[in-house]
Structures are given as C-alpha cells and as structure tokens.
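Suppose a colleague, Dr. K., hands you the sequence of a protein chain of 662 amino acids and asks what its three-dimensional shape might be. Before reaching for any lab equipment, you can write down a predicted structure in token form. Begin with the sequence itself:
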Amino acid sequence: MFRQTPTLVAALALLLGAAAAAQAQEPAPVEITASKLAEGGPLSLEYAWRFHPGDDPRWADPAFDDSDWELVEPLLLPHGRPRGSWPGTGWFRRHLRIEPALRGKPLALRIETPGATTVFLDGVPVMSAAASGLRAGGRLEGGAWREVALSPGREYVLAVRHTLSLAERHARSRDLGFLLTIEPRDAEALRLAAEQGPNTWRVAMRSVFTAVPVLLALFHLALFLSYPKARENLFYSLAMTSWAAMAFVNHSVPTFEAGETLALRLLIASVLATIFFSLLTFHAVRTRTLPRTWIVFAALAAALIGLTFLHPDPQSFIWIWYLYFGLMVAEIVRVEVTGTVAREGVKVLLGGFAIVLGVILLQVLIELGLIPPFATVIPLYLLGMLSFAITMSLFLAQSFARTSLHLERQELRRRLLEAENARTTAEIDAARSLQLSMLPAALPVVKGLETAAAMVPASEVGGDYYDFRVAPDGSLVVAFGDATGHGVAAGIMVTAVKALFSTLGGGESLSAVLAECSRVLREMRFKPLHMCLTLARLTPRSVTICSAAMPPVLILRAASGEIEELGSGGPPVGSRLSGAWSERSAPLSPGDTLLFASDGFAEQLDAADNPLGDERLAEVFRASAGAPARELVERLLARVAAWRGDREQGDDITFVVVRAAG
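The predicted structure, expressed as tokens, is then:
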C-alpha cells in the first residue's frame, strides 16, 4: 500500500493553498519602506505585474480597473511570459505604497529594457528608454532613470508601456521585458556599481543558490567515501552538483546571442541531470537494489540532452524536462505502490519530495499559462529545490548518524565477543589441560604384558578417559571410559571417576566397583551427565571384562588371526537406568592382543561426510597382527588422519592396547 500518500497529498494541498492565497492578494501594493532601502540597495519590482496585450493610453490612468489583467513577471523570462506569444506591445501595471519615514526623501526610478519602454507614475509619463546597445556586464540593453519624491501614506500606480518588435523578439532567447528598480537618490556610488555590473540581489541569489548545493555535494560525497555502502549519498551529491550548475548557468547568462543559446542548452541539461540523480537518490533510499528502470531513465536523459544540443532552437524545446519530470513522478508512485524498504525517518524525505514535486508542478502550470504567476521573494523552482535539499540532507545526515551508531554497536559487540571467545578459549585450554592431567603419567610395567595408549583430543574438551592400576595380586586393572557430552562438565565427570577408580580400582569384583561408582555419581547429581565405563583385569593368561555401556573390547588371536568381541552390556554409571553389570572372562595365549577403542575412531568423517566405521578399525587391527602394541597404536592414528584429511576432528580418539607376551 502507498502508506505515505496522505503525507504527500497534505503537503501538496498546503502548497497549492499557499499559492492560491498569494494569488488572491494580487495586486497588493508594493510596500516601499525605509528598512528595505536602509543600505542603499535597489528594490527590484520583478514579480507579478498586471499585464494586458495591445496599446491603449487609458491604461496609464491610476483609476483604471486592472483586476482582470493577467499576472506576469516583467522580465518576461521563459517561465513568466504572457499566455501565447509576445504581441509586440503591451502594458504592465503595479501599485506602490510609501512608508511615512520616507517623507521628503528623493527616490530614483531606474528601468533597464531591450525595447522601447515608457514609464507612467499616476498617469504622468516620467521617463522613457529605448534599446541603445549592450550594457557592460548586464543582461538587458538600454535604460534610463528618473528622480522622484513621493508623498507617504498613499498609493501610487506604475504603468509601463513596453514594445519589442518581432525581429527583436526572435533575436533574443531570454529576457524580452524590462526590470524596474527603486533606490535612494543619494546612493550615487551604488548606482555607478549597478551600471557596471549585475545588481546586488542577483549576485546574492547566484552566490547562495550556487554555493549551498556545492557545499552539500561535497559534504555528502565525504559521507559516501567514509561509508560507500550508503550509495544515496553519492547520488545526492551528484544531484546537488547538477543543481549548482543549473543555478550558476541561470544567473550567469552571457549577453551575446550564441552565449545565451549555449547557456539555455546547459540549463536544460543540468535540469535533466538534477531530476535523474534525484530519482537515483530516491531509489537508493526506498529499494533494496536499484530497479532496472534506472537504465531507461539514464538512456532517456542522455537522449534528451543530446537532442537539446542538436536542436537548432532550444527555446522551443525547453518543455522536454516537463515530460522527464512527469516520468519521474510516475516512477516514484510505482515504487511506493509496489513495495519499499522500511527506513527510519523516511517521512522527512518524502515530505521534501512532496514539496519539490508540488513546486515544480506549479512552475509547469505557470509556464503553460494554466495559472497566473504570483509574487515570491525567491523563484519557485529555487524554493522547491531548497526544501528538497534541506529535507534530504537532514534525512541522509540522520541516516548516516544511525549507521555510525549501528557500526559502533557492532564494533562493541565484536569486542565483547572477542573477549568472550578469549575467555572461553582460556577455559577450554584449562579444562583440556585438566583432562590430560587425569591420564597416567607413565604406563605400568607388568610382567608378561605389553601396554600402549594414546589420546587425540578434539577441539572441545571431551570425556574420554583411560587409567591403569596394578592390583595387589599382580594383575593389571584397566579403566577405559567416555563421559557423555563435551566441555567442562564432561571434564569434571572424568575427574570424579578417576578419583573413584584410584580408591576402588584394586577391588576383586569389577562389577562391585562399577556399582559403587554409579552410586557415588548419582549422589553427586551430575544431571544429565553419566559415564560409559569398562573395567578390565588382565594377566598374561586371562582377561575379565565388566562393561557399563562401552563398545566391546576386541581380542586378536595370534594363532588364528581372528578377532573376538568381549564385554558389552550394562547401563552407564551415574545414570538412573536400572540393570546389573556382569563380568565376562576369556583366556589369553602368547601373542594375543586386546584393543580398547572409543567411538571417536569409527565416527570420524571424511570430506564427503562418510564415517570411518568399525569395519576399517578391524581391518587395521587384523593387519597389525604380531606387531608391538606401540606400533598398533601408531597405525590406528595414521589411518584416522588419512581418512579425515583437513576436516576438523569432531570427537576425542582414544586407544589402549594390551598384548600378552610371547
């Protein structure tokens, strides 16, 4: 849905209402006050005079009713001309009111004109001017001035009869009318400066409306360079650059005809560029990715600019930007209707777009002659662009501030995460060191038995555990287990089991040792942890196994090369599962080898997620028949490394090998 439609409509309605109110006040008299003339500057009467085509001496009469005359701008710029073409001769009227503070003060009326112009004050002709060559640095030709002393507190009527022949009209592409100013008579130095260059108001207009967009362009270009992901700053910078070019060209037109034609072409090109980059700015703000329609707009702008420079009469082709502007409005509506990206503070931006769209629409209607012009201190298009610049800069600056704050928060989160990772890594390293410290520092020496063991810890702290104890009767007791889970909790479980094994491991009954370990662990309430554990008692001629949910122990018979399994069964110790642990025994012959292996071997994955499996464990075990215990462990570790490759190890891998001496 077009959620912002009420905002746009309200802004446009307010703008149209203001325009209607301004028009209804015409022809309100121009207030000539001392404050306006305090610095000796000229007061230019360049807005909204009443106009009537033709020639009638009665129109100089101050009592004549001119309320039905058309409102035009006396300079007769392309956007302020009468309806239809210039008739050749026409009359202009403007009402004045003089402030009492100016009683007795001499004032000068000055007129600049390219044609034959006569000025009437309350029906009396006060001065005439005719074209007499180019004025140095000016935009109009010819001129005259006349000193007057006006009585305060009453209204005066200025009537101007202006004639510009058809030939002169075709020879000029811009100013066809006149400029009438009022200034203090004693401002001689100011008048001399005015005769030698453009007036102060135009200089100020050109400076402000050229410098402001240049500063905005540089500012938002800097924002873009500091954060290139915010492309709207780049597009807005280009839009402001185009606007600066438009303002500069519009206020710096050369006085020779070829220069005026070139300036008009540059003006149309800069207007099209401003519209195009403004649209790109809107796209960057309101869409995730630029719609493909931007290519169409870019191609159309390039074609129109090329046509402007190739067309022999750019003055008759100035309407093309109306079409381009209308297409931009349609594109904005299309994007808003089809769906946009939610952006915080976007109502400010849309409000600025609404104002500039409304202002440009009014300008188009005035230039088409559909509504009369009305007086404003600043030209309409500059008001619209100024509102657009203020709202867009406000939105982009706030957006950049929010982005900076977001980046700062991300940086803070990153630092906190790094600190947390460092703390966790330190804890894991400490837990892994604790886990490895639980392993026996040296393998026991038992006559008739050869032992070897190895553990390869995973990246996390696991729960694999092995230990040895030589019983009073000379047998070797082996503890081989795997705590559920990983991390510090599993390490604590291993610590508890080692303590229990160190205390109870020498008992004659392996099942009794498991039962006592289970009871103690349940009372310690390691929920939900428990321990899978195998206890084995070995002599050179026999082995007894009691298993609590561990994989069976493999026995490789030296005489036959067969592999037997021994000792699976029983619940884990420390769990709430009921069940008994039974002991199973088997004879050993010289050369027989026992292999205790954790499930980390069989569960190792290769690059294609294939597990190593128990069958490959048996293959390596069988191929190592007759090899020393240490060599068997090394072959098993090499097989795991070759299978895993560069893949991270997912679980601890632990082996214990016991071989009956030959």
